[in-house]
Amino acid sequence: MLYFVNRGFTEYHAGQIEFLKLLEANSIEEKISFSLTKFITTVIGDTTVLEYVLSGRHGTRQLVSEIDFPYNLNSFSSGIGMIFNHLGRVSICRLYASDYEIFN
């Protein structure tokens, strides 16, 4: 159980750091402001912040909706990781997106 708690925490934080980097923040302490309609460049191409966050939610939803999920401990661990990684991104939107309330 402790492993899954730690996995959740590390993925949450990793999601935040990775997302801040995509938003071109120089440090985690930097106070940034952005719109959910802002375009960012990801490994799969240019997308809006909102589309990026929603694609993570969609991927997570697909995995955990599979009939045989979790089919083993690794799939469960991946699911936990994806959920908390997504929540880390959402937390950055809640903190810094100027239009978060519109899309909430």
Q: What this model shows, in words?
A:
By secondary structure, the chain is mainly α. The chain has 4 helices and 2 strands. A two-stranded antiparallel sheet has the order 1-2. Strand 1 and strand 2 form a beta hairpin.
The description of the largest β-sheet is: 2 strands, antiparallel
Rg from Cα: 14 Å
Query: What is the spatial order of strands in the main beta sheet?
Result: 1-2
- Uncertain stretches of 5 or more adjacent residues: none
SSE inventory with pairings:
Layout: H1 2-22, E1 39-42, E2 45-48, H2 49-65, H3 73-96, H4 100-103
Antiparallel strand pairs: 1-2
Helix pairs in contact: 1-3, 2-3
Task: Produce a short descriptive summary.
Helices cover 63% and strands 8% of the residues. It is built from four helices and two strands; from the N terminus they run αββααα.
Summary keywords:
104 residues; mainly alpha
